[in-house]
Amino acid sequence: MTRADELMNIRNLLQRRRRAILSANEGTHRELSALKDQERDPEYEEQAQAELADYTLSTLMESQRREVMLIDAALRRMDMGVFGECVDCGGDISIERLEALPFAIRCEEDASLHELDMRGGHQQSIPTL
Ligand SMILES: [Zn+2]
């Protein structure tokens, strides 16, 4: 398979994953609304449990949203034709790396350099992609 084919595969995977997350997100949203309705019920006694579930669902929705954002960013990079290109050296990021980390924007070498930079620097430690 050529690199272009491999990238197309990753694109399809990301699009499928995006749809799956969005429908999961809808489900989470419904659960959360159902929970809120329940909480308004004065007869509802399991308040602490409801709050925990509420928190768990909100956190889940948040991480689903974040993943969709990452996927959208990757798809945008594909549209611009720069997906799989290292933002630091401009070289190709290996397919193996992209398959494992489709949101990677750096080649392995630059990612580890970047990580070192971040540890030494003042930047906040955000995960290196
Ligand atoms: Zn690089």
From TrEMBL:
<dbReference type="Pfam" id="PF01258">
    <property type="entry name" value="zf-dskA_traR"/>
</dbReference>
<keyword id="KW-0862">Zinc</keyword>
<keyword id="KW-0863">Zinc-finger</keyword>
<keyword id="KW-0479">Metal-binding</keyword>
<protein>
    <submittedName>
        <fullName>C4-type zinc finger protein, DksA/TraR family</fullName>
    </submittedName>
</protein>
<dbReference type="InterPro" id="IPR037187">
    <property type="entry name" value="DnaK_N"/>
</dbReference>
<feature type="zinc finger region" description="dksA C4-type">
    <location>
        <begin position="86"/>
        <end position="110"/>
    </location>
</feature>
<feature type="domain" description="Zinc finger DksA/TraR C4-type">
    <location>
        <begin position="83"/>
        <end position="107"/>
    </location>
</feature>
<dbReference type="InterPro" id="IPR000962">
    <property type="entry name" value="Znf_DskA_TraR"/>
</dbReference>
<dbReference type="GO" id="GO:0008270">
    <property type="term" value="F:zinc ion binding"/>
</dbReference>
